Amino acid sequence: MSSIDKVLARIDANLDNSLDRLFDLLKIKSISTDPAFKAPCREAAEWLARELNDIGIEASVRDTTGHPMVVGHRKSGKPGPHVLFYGHYDVQPVDPLNLWKRDPFDPAIETKPDGSKIIVARGSADDKGQLMTFVEAARAYLEETGDLPLDVSILFEGEEESGSPSLHPFLEANKDELSCDLALVCDTGMWDAETPAISIMLRGMVGDEIIVKAASRDLHSGSYGGSAQNPNHIVASIIAGLHDENGKVTLPGFYDGVIDMPEEVTKMWDELGFSVEEFLGEVGLKYPRGEKDRMPLEHLWTRPTVEVNGMWGGYQGAGSKTVIPAEAHAKFTFRLVGDQDPDKVQEAFRAYVRSKIPADCTVDFIAKEGSPALRLDFAMPALEKGKTALKAEWDKDAALIGMGGSIPIVGDFKRMLGMDSLLIGFGLEDDQIHSPNEKYNLTSFHKGIRSWARVLDELAKD
Ligand code: BES
Ligand code: MN
Ligand code: MN
């Protein structure tokens, strides 16, 4: 047997133990956005550092201004590229808790009606299950051959789900240690359950929250109604004015830097046979919204958007209360593409919002850190190697796809460390990431581990 076959056989034999270890990690409540979970975030980082040291990757927990990072290294002394593997150990909050069929931090394997097995827990797909595919691949390699096929460094982050506030200073301060030839990132999805994928673009993001204030206190809506400004109405009109009747965002200059895809890419995507009816049907919808002159996959991958993530103001308790609230709130996020500049988008948004505020009212803004979109070089040699490895495992050509979501660090790898990324992940559309009852297919986990072993093997060949 060649050494890769032996490694793959060991992965198969180890699977139950691999799952036990993943379950240990899934039990840790590492919700990064909520300060109440600061201690479990550290616990997850310590767990991972221990795990890496156990398998022979020298690792430590590094403090930041927020949640700690885990950094590890294993020098093989072999030629070939030095790779940096990235994943995040933090997870999203679990609310609404009543919609979970089980405790989100008590992982279990469930069997679906079609016989397939799923791992159910918060973070199973985003991103603990995915990051453990790499760790378990490295473990099998080290156990079987005593070494890794190339130099490997590791970076696990604990703030991805909260916008990575301490990432820039950390990357800046540890530039030399973290700059490798290539980053391997496991935080994206497959095309479908049979078809592996490599993501070649990610949307960027910038966010803002607004607080519109009118009267100095809540008012009687009869005594003042019709005379005093109502901040709920102001926020509603701000939101309503963001799109025109064709679904275009109205902010001046918003589409500056948006790039149309070359024909070879749109052709490749046409051949994927995407069905928007099925995509939306799965979540109980039918008709795509968005720019009328654009295709469904463009809406998701190559076009910029604005979404209102939350809005509140005024009375929300039982029954009615006749009141004009003193203030109203809304949270917005823009998904960015091409060369759109997050700062410029934010400036345009703020100028627009200010223009809608009556002279006797005010608006405050709470910014969220922005990150530009990312396009990978379609001719990047590592793409070919990734495709070869995935084809061997899944017996199907990998699709080169876009991703609607954002992973801010990938752009920083390029801009700050000059490092390209190979984005390979095994998530599926129905994993319910960020939602109740998040799951990761057992096949994603098992074949994900095998895929990384093959990717390492492939990258080590010249
Ligand atoms: N893993 C996701 C990004 C993702 C989502 C990739 C769907 C592929 C498909 C990541 O953890 C995430 O949720 N990112 C946030 C970033 C934000 C909090 C700064 C996002 O996209 O909303
Ligand atoms: Mn993620
Ligand atoms: Mn996420």
From TrEMBL:
It is an enzyme of class 3 (hydrolase). It comes from the Bacteria. One of its GO terms (molecular function) is metal ion binding. Gene3D superfamilies: 3.30.70.360, Zn peptidases. It comes from Roseibium aggregatum. This is Succinyl-diaminopimelate desuccinylase. Residues 203-359 form the Peptidase M20 dimerisation domain. Pfam families: M20_dimer (PF07687), Peptidase_M20 (PF01546). The keyword Protease applies. PANTHER family: BETA-ALA-HIS DIPEPTIDASE, SUCCINYL-DIAMINOPIMELATE DESUCCINYLASE. The keyword Magnesium does not apply. InterPro entries: Cyt/Met_Dipeptidase (IPR051458), Peptidase_M20 (IPR002933), Peptidase_M20_dimer (IPR011650). GO terms for biological process: proteolysis. The lineage of its organism: Bacteria, Pseudomonadati, Pseudomonadota, Alphaproteobacteria, Hyphomicrobiales. Keywords: Hydrolase, Metal-binding, Protease. Its EC number is 3.5.1.18.
